[in-house]
Specification:
601 residues; single chain; 23 helices; five-stranded parallel sheet; binds 2-acetamido-2-deoxy-beta-D-glucopyranose; three-stranded antiparallel sheet; alpha/beta; Glycosyl transferase CAP10 domain-containing protein; disordered N terminus; globular
Length: 601
């Protein structure tokens, strides 16, 4: 998590490391899990001591966070120095004002927090500024800055554009001229083949310079003159998936030789329901997420093509394999969008946040349960492929009836497989069903049938497996201790609200967001795999005499989010991002920079 990759080149390396470590982990897997010594009950809290893998994961994560905190920059000179050391360039013009803005808002300035910006923007250095500007102006849904005014351009009223416009407007007086195209779809839009991105990243590296401070320019170019010029519109050639679905498009964003590109690993049998969970066991830390960045990456999780709606059948796909500037709120690791804080986090929308003021009451007053409500989204979950969809899988795996059926059926349900209980030290004798009955409150409030009918929440082919439940506003969910968070059509949109609440988020996703390098899994929230095979182990750990540990993570996550996920922090991130973006789109970008700290003015 902390070491978010700044280049695709890094991925190849990370990947080979994964293969080697994977093998080591695999052979040593579950060694200290001996079914014979498994405790008979978790409720007594016996059997748990420091040797639980979650304790080890928490220890490591706390050390990572401590290290991160030592890199906070207290003053501008240090921040500029850290910038040059990490980015290999002078900071962009406006950096001093940006730093002052951040400090005025009591922000922690930690250079790693901005890694995502550089990961996202680096390949664009390979394209000519003029071409980037032409591309940007060809996308009808965009926000422009001209003479310190933020202008909203859109072909028709679009979801969330107003919210993003509001975010940028708050910064308009501080920003140079620019055009930022925005993806208004739920689904992501750019998959540039890995080889191309790699070439672009290498080109940026080769051209990276730190010109003598005396030659550096601090004024961005004005775009008003250029607005008179008529440039030929750029066609990104957005396309629908070929046969084989979105996976065939998406996997091209993965490194050559990665499991996603290597059709042979693992064997995916489309003829049977998705029971491919071994891959996670191999990369996990004794069955739990050890490296969230790795575990959520579909490039190393080819089984996601049958375990996630994004790959099974998204509602809409319109994907370009060219690199052009396009901003959005979330993306898959193989996508190339430029991440912004999601509009739904900026909007003061109760549906996604539970309200700005509602964060839940005291831990001790909450129900000792995991709660989940929502619609069965994820894509078009038709018969028979609905069995691969993530929300459906979670709902069945927390359903005591379907789990009991699976226990009597060689661990197989219609759309899930149970973990080997012994691996998680779970008692086989009705322990899991009891845990689910007593400690979960979950249900779909709409089955999102195909064909879709908003007015009818039922669905003939799903009704036998899912009973509809009353919807629940987010602020009511905060009356429960545990908050599993699952992807929908893309990222869930609830996570910021969950983090700021007094309850404990248990997060599973394959999507990346702007905040990824500022949150530390196992310190600020509990990471869960998208197979959900670790869910029972996680719940048994906390319920088995570790209530105070759950409370500690819930409150640490809340306190941390109040420092790094505030609306101010979204502004600070966006401000920094747009200074960098404007520089890349500027004809004199090689010479643009902030060097007053060196010149001593
Ligand atoms: C608890 O720790 C002790 C060593 O301190 C070890 O012998 C024992 O097996 C552990 N118990 C469990 C259930 O892991
Ligand atoms: C890719 O598949 C080949 C078999 O076709 C296998 O030998 C190789 O190890 C695989 N590579 C990776 C990185 O898994
Ligand atoms: C986690 O995985 C990512 C990439 O998959 C890698 O870059 C990173 O170094 C890993 N982190 C640790 C602590 O191993
Ligand atoms: C989804 O279902 C259709 C039949 O309706 C089938 O042809 C297709 O292969 C399935 N897709 C996947 C990814 O399993
Ligand atoms: C029992 O397992 C089989 C596969 O082994 C699966 O197709 C079936 O749906 C399962 N039955 C139930 C009731 O979950
Ligand atoms: C739980 O599973 C059973 C069997 O599949 C199903 O009849 C029931 O409706 C499910 N309950 C919920 C809340 O989805």
């Amino acid at each position: 998590m902390l070491s978010t990759l700044t280049s695709r080149a890094g991925r190849v390396l990370a990947f080979s490391v994964f293969v080697i470590l994977g093998l080591i982990w695999y052979t040593s897997s579950f060694k200290y899990y001996d079914a014979a010594s498994a405790p008979t009950t978790f409720y007594a809290g016996n059997g748990y001591n420091k040797s639980h893998p979650i304790d080890a994961l928490m220890d490591t994560a706390e050390t990572d966070l401590d290290e991160l905190l030592t890199t906070e920059s207290q003053d501008l000179a240090t921040a500029a120095e850290r910038y040059r050391a990490r980015r290999g360039r002078h900071p962009p013009p406006g950096f001093a004002e940006w730093f002052e803005f951040a400090k005025d808002k009591d922000s922690l300035v930690i250079e790693d927090f901005f890694d995502q910006i550089y990961h996202d923007l680096t390949p664009y250095w390979a394209l000519e500024p003029k071409e980037l500007r032409r591309q940007a102006k060809s996308i009808p849904t965009r926000i422009s800055i001209r003479n310190k005014k933020a202008i909203l351009n859109t072909d028709e009223p679009r979801n969330w554009m107003d919210s993003w416009h509001d975010l940028v407007s708050k910064l308009e007086g501080r920003l140079p001229d620019l055009d930022m195209p925005i993806n208004v779809m739920d689904e992501t839009r750019l998959v540039v083949p890995w080889e191309t991105v790699n070439e672009y990243v290498l080109k940026e590296q080769a051209g990276r310079t730190m010109p003598n401070a005396n030659h550096v320019i601090s004024e961005y170019m004005s775009l008003t003159q250029l607005d008179q010029e008529i440039a030929e519109a750029y066609d990104p050639e957005f396309a629908i998936p070929p046969e084989g679905g979105y996976w065939q498009m998406a996997k091209l964003g993965c490194p050559p030789g990665s499991p996603a590109r290597n059709n042979t690993l693992p064997m995916i049998d489309f003829g049977t329901p998705p029971w491919e969970f071994d891959n996670f066991e191999r990369m996990s830390y004794h069955g739990y997420v050890g490296n969230f960045t790795l575990a959520k990456d579909p490039c190393v999780r080819p089984e996601m093509q049958v375990l996630h709606g994004t790959f099974l059948e998204p509602i809409s796909v319109s994907t370009s394999n060219k690199l052009l500037p396009l901003f959005g709120g979330s993306k898959l690791p193989m996508n190339n969008e430029i991440l912004l804080p999601p509009a739904m986090y900026w909007a003061q929308n109760e549906h996604y946040s539970g309200g700005e003021k509602e964060h839940g009451g005291e831990w001790e007053d909450k129900m000792n349960k995991a709660v989940w409500r929502g619609a069965a989204t994820g894509g078009r979950a038709r018969e028979p492929n609905w069995t691969g969809f993530q929300r459906h899988r979670f709902m069945s795996m927390v359903n005591a009836t379907s789990v009991q059926q699976a226990e009597q059926n060689n661990s197989h349900g219609i759309n899930f497989r149970l973990p080997n209980y012994a691996d998680y030290k779970l008692n086989g004798d009705g322990f899991v069903t009891q845990l689910l009955e007593q400690h979960t409150d979950t249900g779909f409030n709409h089955l999102v049938c195909t064909p879709y009918n908003e007015a009818d929440p039922t669905c003939p082919y799903l009704d036998p497996y899912f009973q509809l439940a009353e919807g629940m506003p987010m602020k009511k969910m905060y009356n429960y201790k545990y908050l599993p968070d699952l992807d929908g059509n893309s990222f869930s949109g609830r996570f910021r609200g969950f983090m700021l609440s007094t309850s404990l988020p248990i997060k599973a996703t394959i999507y990346n967001e702007w905040h990824d390098s500022r949150l530390v899994p196992w310190v600020h929230f509990v990471p869960m795999d998208t197979t959900y095979i670790d869910f029972y182990g996680i719940m048994a750990y906390f319920l088995g005499g570790r209530d105070s540990v759950a409370r500690k993570i819930a409150l640490a996550g809340k306190a941390w989010s109040e420092k790094v996920l505030r609306r101010e922090d979204m502004q600070i991130y966006t401000y920094r991002l747009l200074l960098e973006y404007a520089r890349i789109c500027d004809d004199r970008r090689e010479y643009l920079g902030y060097t007053n700290d060196i010149l001593g003015s």
